[in-house]
Predict the 3D structure of the following.
Amino acid sequence: MLINKAAIVVVAIMLSACGYHLRGALVLPANMKNIYVEGGTAPLLDQFKQAIKSSSAKLSSSRAGAGIVIKIFNEDFSRRVLSLSSRGKSNEFELYYRLEYEFANAGDAKLMDRQTVEIRREYYNDQQFVIAKDNEEAGIKNEMYQQAVQTIVNRARVVLEAGAK
C-alpha cells in the first residue's frame, strides 16, 4: 500500500516537472489573470469561459481591474456549398469563420492593433445520414470557436510578455 502511494507521488512529481498540463489548459502570465472580453457572439464567449475555467484566470464582468481587454469585431460565420450530387443536393460544405480582435488595457490604451483570425473547414455531407451530419457540423463549429480562442489567447500571451520586457 505504501509503495503504491509512493509511486503515485513520484509519477505526479515527474509529470509536473516535465511541464505536463491537461489538454486545453492555459498557462497565462500574471497580468492576464483577469480577462474582459468585449463583443463576440454567445458561442465564442462560451468557449472563452471554457478556456479560462481550465486555467487559474477568471473572466471579468467589467473592464475595471482587468489585466487585458479583448475586443472582438466583425465576427462572421458562413457556410457554402462546395459540391452537389446528381440529384442537386449538397454533398460537401465549407465552413468559414472570421473575426477581428485587438487588445487593450483596462484604461482602453491599445496594446496591439487589430488582427484577423480566419478558419476554414470542409466536410462531406452524406445524404443518408442527415441528422448525424448536422451533429458533425455543430462539432466542427465548436472546434472552430475553440481554435479562435486559442489563437487569441496565445497572441495575447505573446503581446503581454513582449510588453513586460
